Structures are given as structure tokens and as C-alpha cells.
Amino acid sequence: MTCKRFLPLLLALATGCATPPTGTLPRTAHLFPADARVTQRAVLTVRGRQFTLNGQLASSATNGWRLIVLENFGGVLADVLVKRDRTVHVMRSSRAFKARWIRRYVAADLECIFGDAAAGPRPGRMLTPTHFVIERRPYQLDLQIVEIKPGPQSPELFDESKAEKP
User: CA–CA separation, 148 vs 23, rounded Å?
Assistant: First the structure.
């Protein structure tokens, strides 16, 4: 094979399949009321294994976000409070969701979907205004908003003094 024919073949093989790169999630904060209770369903894929999760998010314009992630039978897997100044407080962790993982990933995913801050990468896609896919190296989160109930949330939900001790 001549060099003229070999070089294009080599380049074609080196580039591989034409797969689109991981997207950057657009700013979505304007899609949701500042004060609301949001019910979510998600599929978390880690190392090829899928886990179904439920979530309850309390959003407050003055206090921040409080997300409780539940397993199918109602057990709490993660409970995180993200204040308006973006400080993260792990209210409760579990064997499945360690406090370190909650701080690093759960809080970051919360910011990706509901945040309006410009800092940091937003790895994911918005399929519809209520359906998001977050793609990070260790996992993929396919999240759907099931219900949004606008209205003020109880200030007790945002009391960081009730967080578990590290």
C-alpha cells in the first residue's frame, strides 16, 4: 500500500467513531420558581449498574436548597443543604452515599440543574425543560422533574446546625 493511500486510512482509524462530546448544560435556573418543592425521579448509572432514586428538593430564594435523595422503599440515601452562599452541609449520609461523595457530586449536580452561578463546568444535557442528563466520569444521572409545587418553604428545612457531625 502506498503512503498516499495509507495515511488517510490511518487518520480515519485514529479518529474513531464520530460521537458528540459531552455537552454543557445551559443555564436553567429561570425554568424553576425560586421558592418551590420539586419532586424528582432519577436513574443513576455507575459502572454499568443502574439505580433508581427519588428526590425531594426544597428551594428557597433566601435560604438555598435542601435535597433529600431516597431509595425506592423510602430510605434516605443522601440529605444535603446548599446555602445561597454555596456552602454545602451534609445533613445525612448513608453507606451508599458517603458524605464526601455528596459534597463533591450531589451538590455539584444540584448546582448544574438548579443553579444560576457561572462558575464551574456543567457537564450534561437538557433533553426537555424537565428532563436532564448529567454526565461525569464516574457516573451518569438521568433526572426527570415529576412535580413542581411553587410556594415558600419552611425555614427549619434550611437549618445547618442539624447536620450530621463529620
Answer: 26
